[in-house]
């Protein structure tokens, strides 16, 4: 019973992050409520599969790592899906997953060209580009008849306030699910104003197994593949920190081979997820805190959570419950969640020696170019569609700028990189 309760705790800690990404992407790509309910269900199901791949030592790193969909993929998925279509979106995810699997054994060496000054700049760009999504949802959803209605703003801000209050006045497990509690409380309050539509729940099936290629087959586009490879690399770097943290907490030594297996498991999870129209994955840091708080380091707890995820993901009615959350309520929660992505990027940059003008230039130019193209995508349009993957994609352009400028100013020598760190 104790292990079951701990498994439920882990499920609740990652649940808000797991459901928000498919809801945002589904709404942005004009999916029907039933299709969004499927996206939520398949995401929950595949989070279970991905976590199993990571926890099972024969395939993954063998630590109590929870894999969930990454927020860094939200803007790229919306961007690619809107411009090139769903088949290119999932074809690009599939190809990027294959590439992640192939580079997994060598990534610990490749990571030299992705020091904090590069990854911090990239994550900052991604975080800032996510904020318009949050603000549009806070206002009621772009294109909605009630867009900008004061009631929407009030409900969204109220939800954000609830999350902040819970986080400030609680600790341990309750703090780890502050966003989930904020969504639930906000939805209950919004229902008093008649803003909750439960029709998707009533029309959903009780049980349904995942269907491969539900939204079509694969098509491939080089720029989109490259974009998701960058997202995957950022996720691997984030996961590396989780691996080392859990290694210390569980007192389980890990070596380069173990970390490579962890990378490989994430790549396989992306490949499988694309086949079933799910999402890219990364290690969830919020669940690391639960392992530390509970003191229970058994992988059996993770296997129990995997079982719960697979069960919940096979019940469309359970997934449809997430779709009843009103858009302004989501927007309020997104400000906190996406803001944390941006803040995490700033935190990574905080490790840089800002007394060196070279480092300031690297950040200034890479973030400036990335945000510039994101806000003015037509600036380089005359270079043609053949180069659109670079000239009209702020994340890709910003990443390339950060890598090249860092190589120019700092090189790839480990000592040089360390000298630029505090």
From TrEMBL:
Its main location: membrane. It is found in: Cell membrane. Belongs to the nucleobase:cation symporter-2 (NCS2) (TC 2.A.40) family. One of its GO terms (molecular function) is xanthine transmembrane transporter activity. The lineage of its organism: Bacteria, Bacillati, Bacillota, Bacilli, Bacillales. It is a multi-pass membrane protein. GO terms for cellular component: plasma membrane. Keywords: Cell membrane, Membrane, Transmembrane, Transmembrane helix, Transport. It comes from Macrococcus hajekii. The chain crosses the membrane at residues 12-30, 36-56, 63-82, 88-110, 117-139, 151-170, 177-202, 222-246, 267-284, 318-339, 360-381, 387-409. It comes from the Bacteria. This is Purine permease. Pfam families: Xan_ur_permease.
């Amino acid at each position: 019973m104790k292990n079951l309760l701990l498994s439920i705790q882990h499920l609740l800690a990652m649940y808000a992050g797991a459901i928000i990404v498919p809801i945002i992407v589904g709404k942005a790509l004009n999916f029907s409520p039933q299709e969004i309910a499927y996206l939520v269900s398949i995401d929950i199901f595949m989070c279970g599969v991905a976590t199993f791949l990571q926890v099972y030592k024969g395939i993954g790193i063998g630590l109590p790592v929870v894999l969930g969909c990454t927020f860094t993929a939200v803007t790229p998925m919306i961007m690619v899906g809107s411009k090139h279509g769903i088949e290119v979106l999932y074809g690009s995810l599939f190809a990027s997953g294959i590439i992640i699997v192939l580079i997994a054994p060598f990534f610990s060496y490749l990571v030299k060209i992705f020091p904090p000054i590069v990854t911090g700049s990239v994550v900052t760009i991604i975080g800032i580009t996510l904020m318009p999504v949050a603000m549009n949802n806070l206002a009621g959803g772009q294109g909605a008849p009630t867009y900008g209605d004061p009631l929407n703003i009030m409900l969204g801000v109220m939800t954000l306030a609830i999350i902040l209050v819970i986080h400030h006045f609680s600790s341990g497990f309750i703090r780890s699910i502050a966003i989930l509690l904020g969504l639930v409380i906000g939805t209950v309050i919004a229902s008093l104003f008649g803003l909750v539509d439960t029709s998707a729940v009533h029309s959903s099936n009780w049980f349904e197994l995942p269907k491969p290629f539900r939204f079509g087959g694969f098509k491939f586009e080089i720029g989109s593949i490259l974009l998701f490879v960058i997202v995957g690399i950022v996720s691997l770097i984030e996961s590396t920190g989780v691996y080392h943290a859990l290694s210390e907490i569980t007192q389980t030594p890990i070596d380069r081979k173990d970390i490579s297996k962890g990378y490989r498991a994430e790549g396989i999870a992306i490949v499988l997820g694309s086949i079933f129209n799910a999402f890219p994955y990364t290690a969830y840091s919020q669940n690391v805190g639960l392992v530390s708080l509970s003191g229970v380091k058994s992988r059996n707890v993770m296997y129990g959570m995997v079982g719960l995820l697979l069960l919940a993901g096979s019940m469309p009615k359970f997934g449809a419950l997430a779709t009843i959350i009103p858009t302004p309520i989501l927007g309020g929660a997104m400000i906190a969640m996406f803001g944390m992505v941006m803040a995490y990027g700033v935190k990574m940059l905080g490790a840089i020696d800002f007394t060196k003008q070279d480092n300031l230039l690297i950040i200034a130019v890479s973030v400036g170019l990335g945000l510039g193209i994101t806000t003015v995508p037509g600036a380089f349009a005359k270079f043609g569609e053949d180069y659109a993957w670079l000239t009209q994609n702020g994340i890709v352009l910003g990443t390339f700028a950060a890598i090249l400028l860092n190589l120019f100013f700092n090189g790839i020598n480990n000592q040089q990189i360390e000298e630029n760190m505090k």
